[in-house]
Amino acid sequence: MTTTAWSGRDLAEIERRDELEVAPRRSDGSFSRPRTVWAVRVDDDVYIRSVRGREGAWYRTTRARHEGHIATGTVDRDVAFTDVENAEGLEERIDAVYRAKYARYSGPVASITAAEARATTMRLTPQ
Asked: In this record, what's one Pfam family (predicted)?
């Protein structure tokens, strides 16, 4: 599997879109049914979380192979899912972007920035 960086065009498209479709790859190699998630850009990286925490079905599927597929607007890419630890306040930066991008959805924003969801933060890396 080859890792590449996001293009400026892809980052701008993901940043502009409210929703992203994510389909984790199952242990047998097939893709699960796409699920709609919120994605945020911090610097040149893209992050997602499970609003249901570790109990979210799509999140549990990411545990099998840590790879999958995402689509939004003109972006249609295979990705790797990398678990994120709170290095140098990264979680707080991600929270701030979620709050700014989705400010009009106060209830869901409170859920996606809660500790349960934060524990599922993953960086998406294009493949």
From this structure: DUF2255
